[in-house]
Amino acid sequence: MTTHAGVTERGRDIAARVERFVRDVIVPYEKDKRRDSHGPTDAMVQEMRGLAREAGLLTPHILPDGGHLSHRDTAIILRASGLSPLGPLAVNTAAPDEGNMFLLGRVASAEQKARFLAPMIAGTARSAFFMTEPSDENGAGSDPSMMLTTAKPDGNHWVVNGRKTFITGAQGAKVGIIMAKSDEGATMFLVDLPMEGIRIERVLDTIDSSMPGGHSVIALENVRIPADQMLGNAGEGFRYAQVRLAPARLTHCMRWLGAATRCQEIASDYAVRRRAFGKALIDHEGVGFMLAENMIDLQQSALIIDWCADALDRGEAGTVESSMAKVAVSEALFRVTDRCVQVMGGTGVSRDTIVEQIFREVRAFRIYDGPTEVHKWSLARKIKRDRTPRDPH
Amino acid sequence: MTTHAGVTERGRDIAARVERFVRDVIVPYEKDKRRDSHGPTDAMVQEMRGLAREAGLLTPHILPDGGHLSHRDTAIILRASGLSPLGPLAVNTAAPDEGNMFLLGRVASAEQKARFLAPMIAGTARSAFFMTEPSDENGAGSDPSMMLTTAKPDGNHWVVNGRKTFITGAQGAKVGIIMAKSDEGATMFLVDLPMEGIRIERVLDTIDSSMPGGHSVIALENVRIPADQMLGNAGEGFRYAQVRLAPARLTHCMRWLGAATRCQEIASDYAVRRRAFGKALIDHEGVGFMLAENMIDLQQSALIIDWCADALDRGEAGTVESSMAKVAVSEALFRVTDRCVQVMGGTGVSRDTIVEQIFREVRAFRIYDGPTEVHKWSLARKIKRDRTPRDPH
Amino acid sequence: MTTHAGVTERGRDIAARVERFVRDVIVPYEKDKRRDSHGPTDAMVQEMRGLAREAGLLTPHILPDGGHLSHRDTAIILRASGLSPLGPLAVNTAAPDEGNMFLLGRVASAEQKARFLAPMIAGTARSAFFMTEPSDENGAGSDPSMMLTTAKPDGNHWVVNGRKTFITGAQGAKVGIIMAKSDEGATMFLVDLPMEGIRIERVLDTIDSSMPGGHSVIALENVRIPADQMLGNAGEGFRYAQVRLAPARLTHCMRWLGAATRCQEIASDYAVRRRAFGKALIDHEGVGFMLAENMIDLQQSALIIDWCADALDRGEAGTVESSMAKVAVSEALFRVTDRCVQVMGGTGVSRDTIVEQIFREVRAFRIYDGPTEVHKWSLARKIKRDRTPRDPH
Amino acid sequence: MTTHAGVTERGRDIAARVERFVRDVIVPYEKDKRRDSHGPTDAMVQEMRGLAREAGLLTPHILPDGGHLSHRDTAIILRASGLSPLGPLAVNTAAPDEGNMFLLGRVASAEQKARFLAPMIAGTARSAFFMTEPSDENGAGSDPSMMLTTAKPDGNHWVVNGRKTFITGAQGAKVGIIMAKSDEGATMFLVDLPMEGIRIERVLDTIDSSMPGGHSVIALENVRIPADQMLGNAGEGFRYAQVRLAPARLTHCMRWLGAATRCQEIASDYAVRRRAFGKALIDHEGVGFMLAENMIDLQQSALIIDWCADALDRGEAGTVESSMAKVAVSEALFRVTDRCVQVMGGTGVSRDTIVEQIFREVRAFRIYDGPTEVHKWSLARKIKRDRTPRDPH
């Protein structure tokens, strides 16, 4: 029911085709057994991508010339891809690859694009973004300025040492983007994976299960990286991270909005079909009201995504907008999926439908990419700045 | 921070001027003592309207030719007027007049417009809409099909009998629109007020205090109305009510969004200025998070209003959209004003600022124009219709 | 439905009689017009107290010898008195007198009791507790250690200077307890009111309206107090404030639990009697569920009050328990009264029933006696103390 | 911090020993790999039970003579056992065995007790309760009166046919209690498992993973049961189900309260130890407030469990009380575990601690044993009965 002012005809067409493809071709894969606790196997992903490629829908938000569709167009396409948790993997709009492709598209050199970005766009290479560090007792975790990983020059190479955690998709990735601190400041490097010195200490077991490779703790031990694999310039790592930050945060919202929309469809159909105490479930206000609240939450999620996408399309940083969207959407979708589980009772907590998985995914989403509380904290600081009286001169 | 795609330059200009006028000229009237428990006296209203007239801002959303600005333009203008609870009264965008003017602009004859609508647009006549009936034990209240008020033809007149309740502004109004049931069905009539046979049984004492005349219980006892004062055609009353319904519901949201925005400004300033336990209130996350949640709630309210206004501007009925907007906005603004009260502590529950009044107004708003639960009920029915499998042929 | 283990037969009997008295005799006074915006006039209070005295129910929780019933017994008696907002005033269990009587009973000398406490117990004198100071920009407000009011010895007198705010019932009170800072530390004094040097700057207009005299801002200007009117010892003011603190906080919970219980009765009766869309309101799950949630919230409020009262009866300070009870009960009762308003629709926001007033009172209760956030803050500190590893030796 | 009036010295002692046993001996088993998606293997359960037996803590709430401790004593013992999801399995207080033992203790004949109950108490036999039926499209599910499973006499046997769903622990159970409809009405039977004609169609994959055997869909196909295996009398099945109902519902609350308490300990320790943005996590109000809210929710859960246990100990049916407790506790514990996850960020959604599992278990608990909405519905009906005016004669 969302309005699509700002959306192009082309975007709308791609989104419609992605939606049809996900519903008809990918949803049946949800019953496919080829998966571990982190997600489908790479073989299954490649099989689905083959179908997407045939359908002309692989990496649908990136143009043949490497340009990206607008954020507004991307919003409806990624939302359509998210109707199944497998959809983004199938059409290559999944995290962290989508954000990594966006970053490389903006910052990488032509040579780097050919070597690292091209196979990602072609859907043959997965990637990982090595930024978050273990918070341990001194709290580096969510505070990027406290980064401990170092990059030291050594002839025509850089030598990187440190530890990273919660690195999504590292297991099985072919491309890595590593953030480290050189004398010039935060600096990013591109590497082929696997690579000597990059050791997966362990893959975390987590509540979510839609990201192949899971989330790893990584040791970086004397990783020797040729100088021409530096991404952009030394000392600009934080600036590049910002380039990736708001759009990647927002694409999470887009995909999970699709998934929660699917839950609402499943729960609504269930409530229309099943009867209890003499009438259809949906005719019980206790059930109908939950679905009505979902309808509103879903619509409002779509609206704030579009609003933030508009800001990005106008060239704004979107930091505040994407914080607002992240909090609003992740919390709303958690309410939505929680209500869907509840509406469906015993079926809701079983894997007979995809609702149970999406509920778990969205629980994690409230933490991934900055927990709700960190965003509220930064919004409060924004309010303080805006309302603090200025010096009169 | 709202985007204004769909808003015209003219609308934006009027809104900016209304905002300036309300902030500079009307806010000081908030301390004016000329008011009873229902709102400012008519004298005070006329004084404020005189100033609005001088500023060229009286009835700013209606063009000289009687046409209305778009709903999107109206949204930002009415929101600006709502920055003070006195603002809509001052610039003549208040309920129920605003909705009544909209209705007459659509349905009244030229003669009726000259006689009844013109003084309303000129800000010299208040009006009342006689529709809701006492629910008593048989439940007519929110169920319009159970209307008991009758209109019987008698020569060149209609004779109306019945009872109405919660008639906002009846006390002191000069124009009345009465809904009654004739043999042809629901039918509307225009009357001058006061009028023989229309008796105010009592004015309710209510939690809100921004509507001059308050909300009355009314007896209609052999009210004789000349036939040419029928509004439109006999039997079309419900259709006309629908014309008024969604837009009037939405303008409530617009005005109260302005009021809640004002609360957020006051509470933010308070939190920036006051200190507790060694730091500014806003630096306490317990306070800062509440203001951050408000920031999101206010933005989402603006977005869903705009979205519904877009639907109305496209000529859609907007029934579903305005139900969604009414629930989302009224509940969000209640949270917002409640948090503002809480942030300000003892000051929040005192009348030292306007926050206390706006909190009470918004509490009533969750019930006026259809309580949240009635809207959820109708949204659940919409979901049921949409998801019930169609007969295949 | 609360269990009353720990409650005595006598307590139960008094509570039953208070309940009968409030329901039969005091509830009709709710329609009495003798009141201003802060509460009933003193004449009306005296009239009700005369009836309570005749019924043997004046100050029912204090024994003829000045002793107090247990906190558990007090809980059910004060709850019964609170079934009407007028009840505590009628039977003399209202704030701040109840807490002040408790304090004087514990700390005052025999002479002081005869002079100051006796008329309070007899219901002929109201009292005020001058502790809170204006928070202004330096934040003294909720932080008692930052008290600025001073007491300086001058011969056989003390001279007190300072400012106090939110002093409930000061207007019209005959007894005052003043907290000030002497060289020895925080010190309390008893005074007759009105008194030279104690000037009511203004009485705040607030959302609540059940406390005669309202809440005042007070200037203390060279108030000369004879030395024998010091309460207890110099420097022990904070200790005495602690004596009063937890019990007074809890009696607020008791009274408002009674009031919210009354709301639930009124809303339930309304929902049983009224019909909408073809059935009784209560048969709509949207309504019935709200009343069911209230039933649970009310029961849990009773339980946590009893639990805290038990701790106090065992002689514990009850600081943590009363903070937990204050947060849980005030927030729960706000939800309860808010739902009652909502269930009753237009009637809920009108003064046709007492629900509207109680809703406003409970809104203020979430702030009075320490806002929710201050209690959560102190509970978090308690958790930190409890879970911080101890030094091993 | 709960008070234990009503709790005996013996109960307190057992609870303390169970707590020590679970913390010291069972918690380390949480890292044991011997488990499938439904819970630990039977071998692992037997190993833990061996340790409990040695410690004299197996089936600690049932006396050697078969009598049960009071519900109040049971409350603190089962809560202690629940501190690990493995605890109830280890000490034999887990569902559904605990409720089944309670039922057999009340209703079974001496012979039946020796044959079916004794091995359950000895911890060598698991059991299953075959009551819930598939709701399908005609809605039998949560509405026991619509039971479709039939029992027909055939000589000295009964022949049972039907389908059951969500039968916890059926896979691997040795004792079954089957509910069916005979001409006399609902009737229960005891059977050894596995048994001819009782076929596990499939074991559901569900979000929870603490119940060995999981939850099964079962076909009952001409199950021939000797007449002396009828439990109690024909036609009394619903009455027996009521005997089991409220206590079993409440023991769920007890166990999960223990588990959520454990989460709070883990999250508090995490928040005390970890630092972010320059201070301990718990010193951030955004974190500290969540833990404070948990503290209150946990206390209130304990109180309402004790209150309901009191009612059961007084011999009341406890239907209303246990519905209230089920709603209050399951919803509160979900909030508690959700906040713990959030406080712990990435660690919260990982299996590095038990918090992630308990969060999932409690999600299911909001549905198992009657979803929240069904209980609210029955509470609303109770309110209606209580407040409907009686016929005067």
UniProtKB/TrEMBL annotation, chains A, B, C, D:
It holds the Pfam family Acyl-CoA_dh_M. Residues 129-206 form the Acyl-CoA oxidase/dehydrogenase middle domain. Its cofactor is FAD. Residues 8-123 form the Acyl-CoA dehydrogenase/oxidase N-terminal domain. Signal peptide: none annotated. One of its GO terms (biological process) is fatty acid beta-oxidation using acyl-CoA dehydrogenase. Keywords: FAD, Flavoprotein, Oxidoreductase. InterPro entries: Acyl-CoA_dehydrogenase, Acyl-CoA_Oxase/DH_mid-dom, Acyl-CoA_Oxase/DH_mid-dom_sf, AcylCo_DH-like_C, AcylCo_DH/oxidase_C, AcylCoA_DH/ox_N, AcylCoA_DH/ox_N_sf, AcylCoA_DH/oxidase_NM_dom_sf. It comes from the Bacteria. GO terms for cellular component: cytoplasm. PANTHER family: ACYL-COA DEHYDROGENASE FAMILY MEMBER 11 (PTHR48083:SF13), MEDIUM-CHAIN SPECIFIC ACYL-COA DEHYDROGENASE, MITOCHONDRIAL-RELATED (PTHR48083). Belongs to the acyl-CoA dehydrogenase family. Homodimer. This is Butyryl-CoA dehydrogenase.
